[in-house]
Amino acid sequence: MSDELISLYIDDELDLDGKIAFVELIHDQTPFKDRTVEFLRSEKTLRAEVTDRVPEVTRPRPLTYPFRGRGLLYSAAAAAAVAAAVLAVMFWPAQKTFEQGPAPESHRFVIYDPGTSSAEIAGDFTGWERVPMERAGTNGYWEISLGLRPGEHRYVFILDGHQRVADPTVMVKEQDDFGGENTILVTGVRT
Amino acid sequence: MKDDTSMFEQMKGRVFSYLMRRCGDWDLSRDILQETFARYLERYAGKDVPPSLLFTIARNAFIDHARKHRRSAPLEGDPEDGAPDAHHHLLVREEYGRVLDAMALLSDDEREVLSLALSSDLSYAQIAGVTGLSEGNVKVKVHRARCRIKEILQGGDHER
Prior knowledge:
The complex is a heterodimer of chains A (191) and B (160).
Chain A: H1 2-10, H2 16-28, H3 30-46, H4 76-91, E1 95-97, E2 105-112, E3 119-123, E4 131-132, E5 134-136, E6 141-148, E7 151-159, E8 163-165, E9 173-175, E10 181-187
Parallel strand pairs in A: 1-6
Antiparallel strand pairs in A: 2-6, 3-4, 3-7, 5-6, 7-8, 7-10, 9-10
Chain B: H1 6-23, H2 26-44, H3 52-72, H4 97-104, H5 108-119, H6 124-131, H7 135-153
Helix pairs in contact in B: 1-2, 1-3, 1-5, 2-3, 3-6, 5-7, 6-7
């Protein structure tokens, strides 16, 4: 256990009691002091600069992601595209295509929750904008059909306006950046 | 209007160092740094977010890359996908190549937490938040990784 104090010391994770214990060990036990120095020398090597050159990053071009949030502020054309997407959401109740590109294929998303008063979907194919789903009959199913380009897509359902739910019918999921889960769907992949 | 890139600009050196220590490949680290920037702009631009979020995004982007790589080339069967393998690249400092060699011999978990501890300036609690591990687990893994890499750098163990 005492050796773990060395890492806690290096990473500035010791509370006051830990600092007292650490200093006492350094004074009382020469081998512990020697090991601490060894770790510190090793740490100098580990923390040295990896590279002389950190690469520049560039803003993604709006044309690459016409309906995603990445470039929306950067051109009037992108703004017009957003307006078109919003209109599409409002006036295309049956099927909506959010992404440009060849041959989008219709995909039907379904979630079962008889207790919810609203269901929405947000994903990379909607620019992570929420799109309302529609009740499918009266037995608790909600559905929407969207046109998706072939490839890998991430999405999540939002129930009652706030509850994020991964698609229970798709096995592949990933953690999102806030500890929730997104579903990963692969469509139209041909090998 | 709030500058939506200043936080990223401030942190990108640390994020890049984390990626380099994580995967050892300058070109791949550059690509994932770019993807991290894009995801940050897409979802969080102009919002007050903690710096640890950038490491979460970078980590997720790296995991996505590793998953896609495995999916697209299953027959290559590279169990060390994402492990350091490009340390001879001219852009890596010569003296750091042996450190990346040593980090390649760590387990994926150990390399993950040690890369964050060395590069991010995050606390163990924040590293736990990024990795999904408990704080106690982070503490144990960081120390274990330090012991192992010290041993490797001292020439005591090159076996896995």
